[in-house]
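Deliverable D5.2: sample structural annotation.
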Amino acid sequence: MVPDLVRDCFRTALCCVCLSLPLATGVAWAQDTPLSAIEWLNQQPTVTLDMGLTPTETLPEFGVTIPEIAVSPLADKTLDAVGLLPSNVTGLPRSLWANSSGNRLSDLIEQQRPEMLPAMQALLYTLLLAEADAPRNEGRNNDVLLARIDKLVEMGALEQAAALIELAGAATPALFKRWFDVTLLLGHEDDACDALMKTPHLAPGYPARIFCTARSGDWRAAALTLDTAKALGLISEEMDALLLRFLDPELFEGEPMLVTAGPSTPLKFRLYEAIGEGQTSASLPRAYAHADLRDTAGWKAQLEAAERLTRTSALHENRLLGIYTERKPAASGMIWDRVAALQAFDAALTANDVSAVADTLPAARSAMRQVRLEVAFARLYGSELLTLPLQGTTARLARDVALLSSDYERAALAGPRDFLAGLALGNPPRTPTDPLHRAISDAFHGAGVPQELSAMLARGQLGEVILSAMARMAEGAAGDTRALTEALATLRAVGLEDTARRAALQVALLDTRG
């Protein structure tokens, strides 16, 4: 911490001025024959790849720009209906949330796990970004919108979270705080600071005001504000020391490095970076990994951050591939062996060298399995593998990789007519001997929707049913075969056939119990 003498010298140099700164659906039921898939899931949408748009439609802009800050009474309106994807894109009705309690929906959104099955991730992103009528009991707190934003941030989808806030307008303290944090993590803090200086009553605390006042160029006002906040006990010792060093780093040359005293926040993370004591993001929440994607970070840090974000589909797999193939690994072991394996396979496939592909595919697939990126690997290479004349076990492995891609039906026709092939075509064997396969098969051969969820469907609570089914799918992937059957049967009952098949294939092919 900063010695008291140094702090007192710094503050004595300022005028003793105290600033007054107030802070302020119709649903189709499951049959023995597969239901038609909803169009928005045909391409396994993710937030960074494909949202199910037709060629004539365009993706929403996810770049971070300064939202229009407007203040208006919220007593008679809610922002819970705000979304980036309209109903004609998602295929979901506008009544998705309308018949459910906002508190219940918020709880269900919060309960979703970030590193769920990729098929469930795609579905969750669509729900989080969907435009739909507001739920019942919405009040004036925008709880469902805030829960959606918080989940996007938790999954590392910062640009999507920022775009959702921008569309809603960061005109409430709760929304502005989230926008401020997201811009800090993306390195776009000037946008939020410019808006904060125009609407200071939205500031999420004194530290944010001091930081933005300094970035606006008024260092004297920032210093006086810090002195006042400290005198009034409105700022922690750690933040006080951080801001003192941020405002006058030369005064503290030779002083020992600060020690993080409490949980990290985006502002603290940014301040430590600004004073030359940047923290690694590896032990911090996933959203902080974006800082390590910048060119200023080392290649190893970029690789680890990219893998972490790709696991939640917050980063496009092509971006991951670009980082993997950026240069040759200069060491061996751990992540470097993984990079070398993928590079060798990618080079073999690019050269269309069938023999080399056969030699390098097993190691590359194993490397991706180590970091739970098999589906990202399949998205990159699955379709192309189906075009090669591979033989024997390598052909079977290539088929299994492709079953995790968007071409899973074509993959089913390219290999043995086994359980996986039947599942990919929507008609798995009725009585497989494996308990996991049996649980999956039951969902495709007459298993009904649980009574609790059937009652919710009868009340028109479609969004709540889908979120509940997703929670059961997580339990099923962890080994609860009854929950697995119920989740898959429910997804098929509401028309999400494509999602159900993808999820079932992923459970069957991936190690989902760890």
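Annotation notes: Residues 335-416 form one domain. The mean pLDDT is 85.
The annotation will be released with the project's public dataset once the embargo ends.
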